[in-house]
Amino acid sequence: MTQHVRIENNGGILTLTLARPDKKNALTDAMYGKLADAIESAEFDPSARVILIRGEGDMFTAGNDVGEFAAVAAGKSEGSRNVVRFIQSLARCTRPLVAAVQGRAVGVGTTMLLHCDLVVLADNAQLSTPFVSLALVPEAASSLLMPARIGHARAYEMFALGETVPAKSALEWGLANRVVPLDKLDAEALALAQRLARQPAGALIATKRLMRSGEALVAQMQAEGEQFAQRLRTAEAREAFTAFAERRPPDFTKVA
């Protein structure tokens, strides 16, 4: 499954491409592991001055592979640990992170953007965090970062109701730096990454450390992770994933 993440390092830019378009770039444990390995290794690689994250195909990512969630909810799997490594690697990353987002960015596809320093959206981008709809809770420190970024009311609506935020609103709310036509997305994100790569790396790292505390974010992630793991094993979660598999609306009113 590691072929579903493509890694290239050119001109100081480490590009991580989600390359599973036939499955809407849904993230598996193996994919999380390869992403985490790349981000962690970049900390010790002076040639990786900037990290650019992008998705292949018509969607950035559908989020976590629902099949893996369902297996945990059904008691058939202990679940992924690489996802924890991945989101913590984002929090601790000292390199500038740039994201290029087209189409849907679901769940972790949106929450990972809160850790990116520059976010470029295609004009067809749609961000959503439907955790509660799956009987889960927010992750990747988004329960802290999202309200801080866009306010409690908007963040709660995104989490509790799973409301989708179109590119224009995401820009207005401060979830992105710019919105461009779809055919200009990769060029715009690459141009920004190249500009960052030409900046003094030490000054960029120091600036990022002053702006955010990676360890504080990891602490929030750990608190979220405990709740997330508990929620995955509830009757509500089993109903959510069963309904998803059966292509029907879940009925949480009958869950004790």
Automatic annotation (TrEMBL):
It is found in: Peroxisome. GO terms for molecular function: delta(3)-delta(2)-enoyl-CoA isomerase activity. InterPro entries: ClpP/crotonase-like_dom_sf (IPR029045), ECH/Chromodomain_protein (IPR051053), Enoyl-CoA_hydra/iso (IPR001753). The keyword Isomerase applies. Its main location: other. Keywords: Isomerase, Peroxisome. This is Enoyl-CoA hydratase.
